[in-house]
Amino acid sequence: MSEAKGGRGAQLKHTGLRPGWTTGACATAATTAAYTALLTGEFPDPVTITLPRGQTPAFALAAEELAAGHAMAAVVKDAGDDPDVTHGALIRSTVRLLPPGSGVVFRAGEGVGTITLPGLPLPVGEPAVNPVPRQMMRDHVALVAGRHGATGDIEVTLSVDHGEEIARSTWNPRLGILGGLSILGTTGIVVPYSCSAWIDSIRRGVDVARAAGRTHVAGCTGSTSEKTVVTEYGLPEDALLDMGDFAGAVLKYVRRHPVDRLTICGGFAKLSKLAAGHLDLHSARSQVNKQFLADLAREGGAAAPLAAEVEQANTGLAALQLCTAAGVPLGDLVASRARDEALGVLRGAPVVVDVICIDRAGTVVGRSEPAGP
């Protein structure tokens, strides 16, 4: 990407930080290598995969095993310059053939968690392998099967060495993900952050947008929210700010360097933190406040029993689902409150603000009306 352009790629380049690979990308590489070996007797090393945005990284294999009926390949996760607790973890995929028509079946091996509570994007009892990594693996299994005349019906058992121990340093136990880590990622790439470098990159993104004459910019928490605002408003790349968790950095800089309109877009749970007054949305520094959500639900017409359920919900998504089923517009209420908090930080700067809340799939689950000083 050239220096003249803005958006997520330019911001990452400006930080000087090295990106890494998600657990989902590593699991996809290991699965691709193991299935190839099971069909051909040879492990591709390095193994190349295609990520959702078209990048084609190659992964060296750290371990491999081929025996009657199964193959195992392992990849060491490289998180780049991100301070990720899973950096250096060994991610294994063991593949076994299944009868035609079985599809791709995922199992949780040692060190990979299992879902035990509702409110996550997977049913209770499923391995903690998120939807995008599952699809990545299915896609690559289909490619390997097509290349070698196989059906693509396999069992994939994912495991992470010392994963249960590593998971104690994550939110998994509190979310009811027991037994180990989650296999995560929506792009396959770990975007590293250093607070000072990332905040500086946000400021540069605003400067680039203003220099290009953009009057409407969007602060987005990630790639899914970027896609949403592009769909909603048709914004060009240099109007997109990779806000990440630093909502306060966007708002304080836009206060000093105004644009006509600012859209803030992100996941419902994350933006509920902004609605509650938090400007740093990172899970290590702010948490979803269920009491706050219950109070908002009451404002939206929730009866006492529903509000009590919201307060005890496992996740923000679970609270949202409870309210949606009861016809209580919790998503809109969170978006409106987040907008008001943003306007408070802007302190009368001539900026119109609107907020869009999305779920993990990018579906809009709440929005505010635009408002300004």
What are the main properties of this structure?
alpha/beta; about 375 residues; about 40% helix; single chain; 5-stranded mixed sheet; 18 strands
Order of helices and strands: HEHEEEEEEEEHEHEEEHEHEHEHHHHHEE
Name the overall outline: globular
Tell me how many strands there are. 18
Which percent range describes the beta-strand content? 15-25%
Structural classification: alpha/beta
- How helix-rich are the residues, as a percent range? 25-40%
Residue-averaged pLDDT, rounded?
90
Q: Main sheet: which strands, in order across?
A: 4-5-6-10-7
Rg of Cα set: 22 Å
> For the report, how would you describe the main beta sheet?
5 strands, mixed
**Termini, distance in Å?**
36 Å
Q: Give me the number of helical elements.
A: 12
Low-confidence stretches: none
